[in-house]
Design brief:
Strand order of the largest sheet: 8-7-6-9-10-11-12
CATH topology of the largest domain: Rossmann fold
CATH class of the largest domain: Alpha Beta
Largest sheet: 7 strands, parallel
Number of helices: 11
Bound molecules: nicotinamide-adenine-dinucleotide
Order of helices and strands: EHEEHEHEHHEHEEHEHEHEHEH
CATH superfamily of the largest domain: NAD(P)-binding Rossmann-like Domain
Strand content: 15-25%
Distance between the termini: 26 Å
Number of strands: 12
CATH architecture of the largest domain: 3-Layer(aba) Sandwich
C-alpha cells in the first residue's frame, strides 16, 4: 500500500516509518500541504494522509476521486478541514478519534500556569539576571471556578487536572457525559451561567457551525472581568478580533492560545524572517497577557506513537475490508 503523506514534519517520520514497516504500508513524504495546487502529487497512490491545516475541499476531493484515490487518512481527531458532505460517496475519510488526551489537556494547564504565574516573563528576566519580582504577581488556582466547554476525552482529563488543583468546575456540553456532574464540585450548567461564573474558561469542543466563534464580542461581554481564556481546540472557536478588543478593554485578563483561526498559513512553519501580515495575531502576541503556541498541544512522544499506529491500522483495516471503525460519517 502506497500512501502520499502531506505536510510532513521531521517528527512525523520515525513513528510512521516504524508502524508502516510493521503493517506493510509505504509512505511518500511530501513537505507541502495538501490543497488544490498540490493534490496532483497523489497520482498513483492508494491513499493520502493529511493533517489539520491541509485543505480538503470540493476541488481536492474531486481530483482525488478522478485519480482513483480511495482513502483519506487524517492523522488527527478534528475533521473541520474536510468537506465531508462532498466527500460522501467519493472518498472514505478516516481519522484518529483518540490519542493521548493527556497531551492536549496537560498543555492547556501548562499554558494556564505559565500565563497566570507569569513564567514566560520570569524566564526572560532571569536569563538577563533581572531578579526583580515587580509585575509577576499571579493568583492561586485553588478555589477558582473553571468553565469547561466540551467534556469529551480531552475536556474530562482537563477537568481531572483542575480538580487536582482544588478548582470548582462548571461544564457545558451539547451531549453531557453521564456520571460526571457530582452536584457539587463539577456541575453541568447552561452556557450563560458558565460565562457569568467562571474565572477561567477552557474550550474542548469541536469546531462546527454551532461552535464557530462561540467566544465572540457578545459572549465575552457575559464573562467575568479578568476571565482567562484557554483555547487548545480549534482557532475559529474564538473571534480573534473580539478577543483582542476584550484584552485591550481589560475585560479579558489573559488568553492562552494553542490554535488561531487563520493559523493554516503560519503555524508549524518558521516565519521568523518574514513580515507578519496578520495584524490581529501580531497585536495579540505583543500583549503581555497573551501566550500563543503553534498548535503544539498534541506534540508528545506518546501522542505521536498513538497517532501513527492508529492511522496505519485505519489504512490497513480499510484496504483489507473496505470498512474502518474510525471512518468519519456525515
Ligand atoms: P471528543 O469528541 O472526545 O469531545 C468533544 C466534546 O465536545 C464531546 O463531548 C461533544 O459532545 C462536545 N460537543 C460537540 N458539540 C458541542 C457543542 N455545540 N457545544 C459544546 N460541546 C459540544 O473530542 P476530544 O478528543 O476531547 O477533542 C476535543 C477537540 O480538541 C477536538 O475537536 C480538536 O478540535 C481539539 N484537539 C486539539 C489538539 C491540539 O493539538 N491543539 C489536538 C487534538 C484535539
Amino acid at each position: 500500500m502506497k500512501i502520499a503523506f502531506f505536510d510532513t514534519k521531521p517528527y512525523d517520520k520515525p513513528s510512521f516509518d516504524k508502524y508502516g514497516k510493521e503493517y506493510g504500508v509505504t509512505f511518500k513524504y511530501f513537505e507541502t500541504k495538501l490543497n488544490e495546487d498540490t493534490v496532483y502529487l497523489a497520482q498513483g497512490y492508494d491513499g493520502v494522509c493529511a493533517f489539520v491545516n491541509d485543505t480538503i475541499n470540493e476541488a481536492v476531493i474531486d481530483h482525488l476521486e478522478e485519480m482513483g484515490v480511495k482513502v483519506l487518512a487524517l492523522r488527527c481527531a478534528g475533521f473541520n478541514n474536510v468537506d465531508l458532505k462532498h466527500a460522501y460517496g467519493k472518498i472514505h475519510v478516516l481519522r484518529v478519534p483518540a490519542y493521548s488526551p493527556y497531551a492536549v489537556a496537560e498543555h492547556a494547564m501548562a499554558l494556564l500556569l505559565t500565563s497566570i504565574r507569569r513564567i514566560h516573563k520570569a524566564y526572560i528576566r532571569s536569563r538577563d539576571f533581572n531578579f526583580s519580582l515587580s509585575g509577576l504577581t499571579g493568583f492561586d488556582l485553588y478555589g477558582k471556578t473553571v468553565g469547561v466547554i466540551g467534556t469529551g476525552r480531552i475536556g474530562r482529563v482537563f477537568i481531572d487536572i483542575c480538580r487536582g488543583f482544588g478548582m470548582k468546575v462548571l461544564a457545558y456540553d451539547k451531549f453531557p457525559a453521564e456520571g460526571l456532574d457530582n452536584g457539587d464540585t463539577i456541575r453541568y450548567v447552561e452556557l450563560d451561567e458558565l460565562f457569568a461564573k467562571s474565572d477561567i474558561i477552557s474550550l474542548h469542543c469541536p469546531l462546527t457551525e454551532e461552535t464557530h466563534h462561540i467566544m465572540n464580542a457578545s459572549t465575552l461581554e457575559k464573562c467575568k472581568k479578568g476571565v482567562v481564556l484557554i483555547n487548545t481546540s480549534r482557532g475559529a472557536l474564538v473571534d480573534a478580533e473580539a478577543l483582542l478588543l476584550g484584552i485591550k478593554s481589560r475585560k479579558v485578563g489573559a488568553a492562552c492560545l494553542d490554535v488561531y483561526e487563520e493559523e493554516s498559513d503560519l503555524f508549524f512553519e518558521d516565519n521568523s524572517g518574514h513580515i507578519m501580515e496578520d495584524d490581529t495575531l501580531a497585536r495579540l502576541i505583543s500583549m503581555p497577557n497573551v501566550i500563543v503556541t503553534s498548535h503544539q498541544a498534541f506534540l508528545t512522544e506518546e501522542a505521536l506513537e498513538n497517532i501513527a499506529q492508529t492511522t496505519v491500522k485505519n489504512i490497513v483495516e480499510f484496504m483489507e475490508t473496505g470498512q474502518c471503525q474510525n471512518e468519519v460519517m456525515v
